[in-house]
Amino acid sequence: MNLKASIVICAYNSVDRIGSTLEALATQTASDGSFELIVVDNASSDGTGDFVRNHVAFSSLSKRNINCQVIREQRQGLTYARIRGVCESKGSFVCFLDDDNLPQPDYIAQGISAFSDDSIGILVSRIYPKYLSVNPSPSMLKREHLLAINNKMGEDLITWEGTSYIAPTIGAGMWLRRSAFLDIVPWQSPELLMGDRTGTSLLSGGDIEIGILFAKANFKRLYCPNLVLYHLIPPTRLTMRYFTRLIISIIRSELTLKKKYYDQQYGILEKIKQFFILIFAMLAFPIIILRQDGLNEFLFVLAGRWARFLGPFF
Question: What does the pLDDT read at residue 236?
Fold first, then answer.
């Protein structure tokens, strides 16, 4: 065997989603035995683990000399699931996929070849949306990146170097150098890391934090447009309630990371400033409502200002 990559899917109550991801992995053109599949069942209550083990695509991969396993992680939370997946992996490179991602057939082969030198620590995939049943409103489409969509970053390779820049190292389709992760990330003390998605919570930022830690260790982070996958977006993620919560969570998570790693403090003066900006946004209602999809646009602007008024999570 010439094992190069470990594909880690962190799954929570994924019976209605993960089948399509497994089927996409079964079509990969990467040579047999060059990758393994690890599904981390993150304390699911819907039988996700058994569903994966019994899926025809899981069996198909196993017949190709691809090691496939399902690991149960009882500590609920995406951070715990990612750490468990890396610790169980054996490949030089680890790729995190969500349970609603569809990688293109050459995805794994392209990922393995993209680690062209030892200075590269992280690869960021090009993620296209695939909306199921319902399309986003214009105001949501403007903020499509909040749904882990980044295909508009373009066709060219982007390299982020240095420690001062927070790069968009999206967790869906993130590739990383395993040995570096184990050296850099405090995986034995996960309480030192940002909490990430847990159950229905929309707290986020764990993927961006990994990118920051790699940057501080002088590794390059690359956006690779040839690493193409599709992200399935169900109607439940296009409701006003969900999208508003998402805006608030992502902004507050970003502020938390800036405070934690870049000493960007949030004191009483900033609180007062953001309060007046929030009031100004409310008073701008007659202007914003005239825009396309005006009511939704106003509510999203208000959610963003509210998040900045609340400030970092800690």
Answer: 94
Same domain, 185 and 208: yes
User: Do both 80 and 131 map to the same domain?
Assistant: yes
Both tokens of 52, joined, read 């994966």
Strand partners, 97: 9
Which residue intervals of the chain are DSSP H helices? 18-26, 48-53, 56-62, 78-88, 107-114, 138-142, 178-184, 206-216, 240-262, 268-283, 285-288, 294-310
270 and 189 within one domain: no
Q: Which of these, 104, 112, 119, lies nearest to 4 by C-alpha position?
A: 112
- Number of domains comprising the chain: 2
Both 19 and 57 in one domain: the answer is yes
Q: What angle do CA 11, 16, 17 make, to 5 degrees?
A: 55
Which of 255, 233, 243 has its CA nearest to residue 300?
243
Query: Are 173 and 253 part of one and the same domain?
Result: no
Q: What are the tens digits of pLDDT across the range 93-107?
A: 999 999 999 999 999
- pLDDT tens for 155-165 read 999 999 987 77
Task: Show the domain range for 189.
Answer: 5-233
CA 180 to chain centre: 19
